[in-house]
Amino acid sequence: MVVLDLDRRSRRNRRGRHLLRRQTRTRAPSAGWRRTRLGDPCAVMRVLVAVLMGLAWLVTGCGNDRTLPRFGETVIAVDVDLPVPKVVSRLRIDIHSEDGTWLDSREIARPNPDDWPASFSVYTENETQPVRVFVRLRAFPTGRVRDYRGERFWDWSFGTIFTPDPVDGALPRLIVDGEDRTPATEPTPLVTVDRLLLVRLEPGSLQQVDVLLTATCAGTMTFFGDDPRAGPQLGLAQTCIDAERIRALVEESPLDDRHEPGPSQQDRWTEPCTLPVAEGQVCVPGGVTILGSTELTLIPDRAPLPERIVRLSPFLMDIDEVTVGRFRAALDAGWSPPTLVQLNEGPLDGSVEGNCTFSLNDQGRETHPVNCIDWFASDDFCAWSGGALASEAQWEHAATLANERSSSTYPWGNAPPTCEQAVHGRLDFDTPGVCSHLEAVPESVEATADLTPLGLRGLAGNLSEWQRDHYDDYSSPCWTASLSLDPQCVAEGAAMRSLRGGSWASPPTFLPSAVRQGVDSLGRASFIGFRCVYPGAP
Question: What SS3 state is found at 8?
């Protein structure tokens, strides 16, 4: 018998029984309490699961004078080391018997930092024999779910160990008291930390299992065994514990005496820069973020999907796009670009061809961002300056930090861009640009109000920016082969490089920070520029 009961008031009213008990109580739950019966063959597997809703365990003490229950009980304390609620805000709990039978499933909201560690109690009504159950834990962000169509093994491998959908009639279902309670959805694997435990319940014993769901396991789906439709299989089931893309055989979890949980480890990946920050740079702290977005459908076959959880080391980033004046100073200091920048010795004329900003003679555009430059010259400039072009993951991380509780849509937050805030929408295409009443030219980097809380300017508009990565779909081997720590796409022989951010010519739909574009590495245009990043730690 399995119960996952989340409502304290309803528990209080059911036959006068409490499933959530303070640890100072001395009376065990009645063996006569029943809610779900699986029949005699499953009598040994009668397990009651009560979820403690977050608040300091609802306990007043853990002294040794507590009378032990007649039934085996284990408290499972679940913590995460990812930021809450930016990356994790929900917890899915599934209980399976030792033979793999699906016994119960619940999903609970954990949207506040003080909701963690979350804990729940698993106990058996069997008074004579130990019982073991599989407990599957999945931490994931709100809204990131897919339709449940049977256990389908899918993670960073994108199909190399893919389990096809079960045939009609063979889908594993959750049946309780003859009622089909199978969840309609399940967490999306690539943005989920998935952990499978094997927990022993000893009659007369009150014990505890502490488990940390870590960012290094994000995207590594639990493997049930040869037949995932049979549920987790003893001796075959594998799960990620703490090493990226490595699964270990699921073994019985070690048990401790009941104790108070320690402080949550959430957001432990946030790291400050430890190297000096030079003038014109800012530190972008390391951390965990979700790369991509399910909310952008501008170009369906170019959507930034699938989303994945990534970790970034701290880095330094130029406050502004590289300016004409800085570019000229590098030339004067002896730097020689591998390819030529397109020159414009006259004024900016409002056309794509006539808006190149660099000139051999000072034309009063020294604080304008340099444009009409290809990827190779941009990359070489950053290397000469002691840095590199930003990776897509670095750029998106820096451009989505404006909100405390979620990734921001734009560098400044979630408010849509205005013509006064970001330099965009100034070029007429089939219809007038939204900001075509303003001069159709790139502006000085000092003129924009396109600003992040860290002080980065012009990420959303003015010029789109070359990235270090080759451009490819997030589902391509170029991305799936990249680890979650400081990922980048390196595709041998690929001609396309990534662009991030909108420009003076872009419509508003190109300004969200997750939007990505691809351009030939040799491409030069008046709406493309660049900025550099530098190591933030040794």
Answer: helix
pLDDT number for residue 371: 99
Cβ neighbours for 39, distance < 8 A, ≥ 6 positions apart: none
H helix runs in 405-476, sequence order: none
| 3-class SS shares of the chain: helix, strand, coil, % to 5 | 10, 25, 60
Residue-wise DSSP of 281-349: EEEE-BEEEEES-SS--SSGGG---S-EEEEE--EEEESSPPBHHHHHHHHHTT---SSPPPP--S---
For 233-286, write each residue's pLDDT tens digit.
999 999 999 999 899 999 999 999 999 989 999 989 999 999 999 999 999 999
Domain that holds residue 42: 4-257
pLDDT surpasses 70 at 13: no
Mean of per-residue pLDDT scores for the chain: 84
pLDDT at 503: 97
pLDDT of residue 40: 29
In a domain, 341, yes or no: no
Q: Are residues 204 and 299 in the same domain?
A: no
Question: Residue 506 sits in a domain of what CATH number?
Answer: 3.90.1580.10
Q: Check residue 98 and report its DSSP letter.
A: T
Residue 268 corresponds to which tokens in the numbers above?
Answer: 């432990």
Sign of the torsion angle spanned by Cα atoms 514, 519, 524, 527: negative
